[in-house]
Amino acid sequence: xxxxxxxxxxxxxxxxxxxxxxxxxxxxxxxxxxxxxxxxxxxxxxxxxxxxxxxxxxxxxxxxxxxxxxxxxxxxxxxxxxxxxxxxxxxxxxxxxxxxxxxxxxxxxxxxxxxxxxxxxxxxxxxxxxxxxxxxxxxxxxxxxxxxxxxxxxxxxxxxxxxxxxxxxxxxxxxxxxxxxxxxxxxxxxxxxxxxxxxxxxxxxxxxxxxx
Length: 212
What we know:
CATH superfamily: Gamma-glutamyl cyclotransferase-like
CATH topology: Hypothetical upf0131 protein ytfp
Oligomer: single chain
CATH class: Alpha Beta
CATH architecture: Roll
Largest sheet: 5 strands, antiparallel
Strand content: 25-35%
Distance between the termini: 27 Å
Radius of gyration: 17 Å
Helix content: 25-40%
Strand order of the largest sheet: 1-3-2-4-5
């Protein structure tokens, strides 16, 4: 696939690097109280940890965008998939959930989260302001690492549809990743116009599952 960077392997972060990344992120937390995480992709429907509190929130200046290649979770080196990252967009916004991490297992929960999200260092964990109905919350947000070889700045809708329809990884099909994200957003009464248009386009132009 000409769109995909040419490489045969990529080394994941080892445990020491993962723990340092987590420690560095926690040091940058300027707020007191519980730790919150902003969910905008698979964390919406599979957060890997239990939480007492989840709130719908909006992140301004960023969009949910298919901009990161996946060769393990939702794709392979033979047929890479695309997953979401948060990409800056001055006039854009991303609606999702802020999830509280608290209780006696909060640090273990964060380690598990880091092992999943930071496995290949495709994201940068930063604290961003999420606006909920009642307040603003500073939350850990996994933005796309634009310096990573798996970051892609622009993929056409036609190419994205073909890639998503064909890719399959350890966690299942790439299409299922998009389908579950859209279904969860609808359950939360959150509208993502671009994602909805992409899925409608896929139904009409690929052989992917049509039950959306």
